[in-house]
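Quick note —
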Amino acid sequence: MRYNLAHDDSNDRTTPARLRLRGDPAQKLSPVARTADGRAPGDGPIEGTPELYFTDPDGIVVQLQHTSYCAGSGYLGEVCPNKPEPAPTRGVLALRDLNHVTLGVSNQQRSREFYRDLFGMKVQAYQGPSPVHAIGSGPQFMAFGAGSANGGIPRTPNIAHFCMTVDKFELDRVLKALADFGVKPRGNSAGPVVPLTSYVSMRMEDRGGAREGTPELYFTDPDGIVVQLQDTRYCGGAGYLGDVCRP
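Predicted structure written out below.
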């Protein structure tokens, strides 16, 4: 698995040559990970669409592209249809945005410093002692957790989960929509992750949530990949919707 970040300077065709990571992490990057992988001519412009990848201190693969990138054609991958191809059926939930990614890492402090120093990421909120780092001006962010499953079993560092948002997040309504679609509540956030189940974790004040708790809803897809769903205003902060963050 990998995830993609966007930055404004990647329209410069020298970006792959200028991206250099300092210290030990750079020594772990293979030449392939540090170079732009041009697409085949049939998938982009004649010279190829460069898609740049690098690995972090845990070997997690990150893709870095221009802010206009849409996985289409053109040198920047920014040429996509004006009218996207519609889904064959109407969805039960309407997604609005990709909100955050949480990485399961072997050393949280090392990973926070790596991404913070590489991208100049500011602290957007604290969840207990753990900061969440804004992507650009937010509310999108990155967070870091221990590389272990819910049951506490150590595992390889990975993308622990990613979060998407919906308008007018109402917990019971979203849970019912998931259940009607075949994703059944499991009732407890502890224990091993199994496919096609949902659960709610109440983030309390000691972890930066609301006094009555900030509900954070997770579900698993058919492969057991963990997805979080929140309100469009969610920023990883306080308040019932998790929408109270630093200015």
